[in-house]
Every structure is written in structure tokens, then in C-alpha cells.
Amino acid sequence: MFGLVGRESGAVRLAVTQHSDRATLDLLVQRHSRADATVNTDEWTAYDQLPASGRTHVSVKHGRPSPEYARDDDGDGVREVHCNTMEGIWTGLRNRLRTFRGVSKKYLGGYVAMFQGSHNLKIATDAFLRILLIVVPPASTIGGT
User: Class for domain 2-144, per CATH?
Assistant: First the structure.
């Protein structure tokens, strides 16, 4: 699984991947983030080459003996270096999938896409719901008659 969440937009990008190696992650990060993005990760070595793609890379060390989960690099009192936002997304996805008591790998991508879409949908307008439910508007609203 690959996941990325925008700190400012809150938009999530999730993908089921066959591999989780450096080349796969680099490609997905480049495809789904801006070139000037700052990428916050844990200490896994597959992320070490992200700066070569132009992205700023900061990480927190979750490992023992002295784990850190958030860090204040600029001294303003806000611990802005963390990957807790994405950890929360993973918890939400896991809780959503748990209700199915197991999901086939064949269909996992569809479940993940539905979770991503529902997370990214901020406002369900009447027009969106009509499309989703295939509700045809009344004749009086078609063509202004």
C-alpha cells in the first residue's frame, strides 16, 4: 500500500502496489505530489532518495531505543515534522476494511478507491447525489421549462 496526504489540502492519494521498494515509492511520490513539496516520513531507508526528485525530505525516527513521533525543527513550538496525519488515514482505512472481515486482494483496490473518494469528498451537493443515484431531474428544470 502507498499513501500520501496533503498537509494543506487534506487530499489523500492511496494505491495498492505490488512492491514497496525505493523505485516504486519514488515514482508514486513524484506522480502524486508537487515538485516543491516537503515529504514527511518515518525513517525507512526506501525514502532516502526523495531529495533527488527535488522534494524536501524530513523524517522522524520511530525505532527504539528512543523513538520520536513529532519534532519541532524551527523552534516555534509546533511539532510540524511528523507522519501522524497519514498514520490516522491508515487507521481509518483499516477500521473501514475491518467491517468486511477480510477483503480479497482482487478487490482491495476498489475498496481503497472508495475509501479515498469518500475521504476526499468534502461536500455532497444535490447535483452530485443525483448523479450518484441516477436520479433524473424533474421535467420543469430541464431546459428552463
Answer: alpha beta
Please identify which residue in the block is written with the cell numbers 476494511.
97
Alpha-carbon distance 136 to 93, whole Å? 33
Listed residue (36, 44, 27, 33) closest to 11, CA to CA: 33
Q: Where exactly are the structural domains of the chain?
A: 2-144
Cell numbers for 52, please give them: 533527488
Percentage of the chain lying above the pLDDT 90 cut: 57
- Chain position carrying cell 480479497: 104
The C-alpha atoms of residue 24 and residue 15 are separated, in whole angstroms, by 11
Model confidence band, residue 58 (pLDDT cutoffs 50, 70, 90): very high
Distance CA 99, CA 142 (A): 41
DSSP code per residue over 53-92: GT-EEEE----SSS--SEE-SSSSS---EE-HHHHHHHHH
